[in-house]
Design goal:
The protein is an alpha+beta fold. It has helices at about 15-30, 30-40, 55-65, 90-95, 105-115; strands at about 1-10, 45-50, 70-75, 80-85. It has a four-stranded mixed sheet, with helices on both faces. α1 crosses α2 (about 30-40). The longest helix is centred in the first third of the chain and has 18 residues, at about 15-30. The chain is elongated, with a radius of gyration of 21 Å.
Length: about 140
């Protein structure tokens, strides 16, 4: 069993990480039986992103309609906006399968800036040699 965390992509990277943690701890508190089963059976966590609050609220509504155990976290410091959703169920995979991994863009940008990730630019071709074929 996996615990799926869906966080808003329109938040800054640090906020996305924090809101994901809030949603996880809220889920653990609200669903102790499922949380205990998750911790002992797999402890797998999947962090995904969704574009904005209206889409996050729509996903929470679909989870509720399908009976998927979930917790929607609302951030008091952001006017109680919904910022992240935690859900767990075999059906959760189907509900979230079209979402990208969370913070992928931030990680790739940081790695590219540090030189540990190749640039997305195609590599430059080497300059043609000035030696004649007979000299080689």
């Amino acid at each position: 069993m996996k615990l799926y965390i869906v966080v808003r992509a329109d938040l800054k990277p640090g906020a996305r990480a924090a809101q994901s943690c809030h949603a996880t701890s809220s889920f653990v508190a609200a669903h102790p039986k499922q949380s205990a089963q998750w911790r002992t059976s797999s402890n797998n966590l999947v962090c995904l992103e969704i574009a904005n609050e209206p889409l996050l609220l729509a996903m929470a509504r679909r989870a509720r309609e399908r009976g998927i155990p979930h917790t929607l976290f609302r951030e008091p410091d952001l006017g109680d906006e919904a910022t992240a959703l935690a859900l767990m169920s075999p059906q959760a995979h189907r509900l979230t399968s079209n979402l990208p991994l969370a913070l992928r863009d931030a990680v790739d940008s940081a790695r590219e800036a540090s030189g540990t990730l190749p640039s997305r630019e195609p590599p430059a071709l080497p300059a043609p040699s000035r030696e004649s074929p007979a000299a080689a």
